Please model this.
Amino acid sequence: MKTFYIKTFGCQMNVYDSQRIVSMLRGRGMVQTESVEDADIIILNTCSVREKATNKVFSELGRIRDRKKTSALFGIIGCVARESGADAFRRIPELNFVLGPQSYHKLPMILDNPDARLLNIDLSGLEKFDELPPMTDSPAVAYIPIQEGCNHCCTYCIVPYTRGRELSRAFEDVMRDVRDAAAGGAIEICFLGQNVNGYRDKDSRTLADLCRDTAKIDSIKRIRFTSSYPTEMSDDLIELFGTEPKLLPFLNMPIQSGSPDVLTRMNRPYSLELYIDIVRKLRAARSDIQISSDFIVGFPGETDADFEMTCDIARLVGYINSYSFKYSPRPHTAAAIMRDQIPENIKKERLKILDDILTENNRAFNESCVGQTMSCLIEGPDKTGRHIIARTPYMQKVIVPAMPEQRVEEQKSKRVKNKHQLSYSPTLLLSVKITSANKCSLRGEIAA
Ligand code: SAH
Ligand code: F3S
Model:
């Protein structure tokens, strides 16, 4: 029996794409392996959003080349494939295939012609969704892409180049994925898109419509989506946070910078006033909503004063669970050739300052949760096997003592025994009373 090895880097979109590829390879009678040495086909699904991510892929490729069977088919798919194109073959001559994020449904071509070399980095739109088989066994959280690409063209971002112009999937196709995921055991749906709230199908149905229809499915208990572009938050979607209890009160809505000048040069044409007004409307719709952001520090030309404004907005909005990055110049982007690139040591200093603010926000919010009872989604046991790790509606990690077996039975859920003989259900929502908190996680107990 042939075996395959697949390693995924980067965003949830890649995780989803890898799951579809796994279904396809299993459908051809192949078996997944964790061992590069044994694999007959080796696939790296890659990310190129920052230079470090791209470099990581090439060093991994170098390591694999030395360990793999000589007969193994070996290739990269995803954004580094698209970024590097034929150059990937020059850097790693042993590669058999290089397939961009919209062309890996072409993988069977190389399986059928193992002596060929395959390069395809076309932007063929939504074809892959039709050609790859659906996923079968869903995890508790199902990530479902609803669009490909992005039309925003932020000047630092390689995504519009690697994933192309924005295309929304058909409403019915997305809902079919949702129903399949629910039937496979998912209880949380996370809609994915580079500009997820820009979703529009051919009849102008929106992300809010997708959320509403998904909420009607009984077994789906939690709905969320990522990443939202600030100015595409429609009033309809904002109001849904107030009216649809299954929509989690947590939203990733990246601001990137708190400086109007930097935002202009990033080609993110919204004012701070407008952004803050959207946050205000969200909080009016649902008072307990929390917002997370992505930030870039050290964008070309960013002054100390610009950076101060980013720190100010991070404190003012009180973002939680946010991501912060040092600006990384990427090929095919306008910012890479802007003047006044910021030296690495300054980027590093600024990142540390911002990270301290974001950590403080997390700590303050985590502490404010102590005493509350929250409905949390079980992820699985911790390393010791004596605790369960679950996620709050705000995606905070909460550690709970292992629950009595009886309780699992009461919940009538599928039981799983891990090697520590801890009983837990992978698809269970638990009511947890938060008992303590630190900057990274919460501790709690199962509420009576
Ligand atoms: N809308 C997308 C964003 C893709 S990239 C999404 O769905 O997540 C994810 C984050 O990486 C961006 O929000 C931005 O903060 C960061 N990023 C993108 N390009 C970058 C670059 N060249 N350097 C540093 N950070 C970058
Ligand atoms: Fe990138 Fe900006 Fe789109 S960050 S993915 S171009 S919204």
In short: Residues 406-422 have pLDDT under 50 and may be disordered.
